[in-house]
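User: My instructor asked us to take a sequence, write out its structure as tokens, and then describe one feature of it. I'm not sure where to start. Here is the sequence I was given:
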Amino acid sequence: MGTRSLVAGMGLFIALAPALAVRADVTVQFVEPQRYSDGGESGYGTEGRTLRTLEHHLKTLGGRCLREGEVLELRILDVDLAGRQEWWQYPGYDGRVMRDITWPRLELEYVWRDRDGQVLGQARERVSDMNYLWRSPYVRYDADPLPYEKAMLRDWFERRFCRGRG
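Assistant: Let's start with the prediction itself. The structure tokens for your sequence are:
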């Protein structure tokens, strides 16, 4: 690619950058993560990665589902990941034992506003998926961190905010 083509391409990118920006604003606040049932500050060093993964996933869902100018403020009050770390596992080992009684759950609050600041919805909810193990054939847990939590949040987000955008 010649210098002229590169400069023209960069100019086009810069001109279109505002249009390519996220069309909606999603903020995620983790309230007292050290008190979370799970996924908070465990001392094993994985909590930061867990919370960053959840935050990124929620922002991605917002970018896909919310309309331009809408704002969604999420406050995560509790996180309980799918499965449990068992007493016999080596500390710091990331593996979790999945059972039908250890479904994923998040407690959260949200305020959803349109571009003019009018409240479209707000609630405090407990999002959970008691049947998470039924997703096993459809979830790639070997390659994706928090697959059950992401699937649960995707379903919840689509019901609340996507309005037919799927």
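For the description part of your assignment, you could build on this observation: The first strand starts at residue 25 and ends at 30. Try explaining in your own words what that tells you about the chain.
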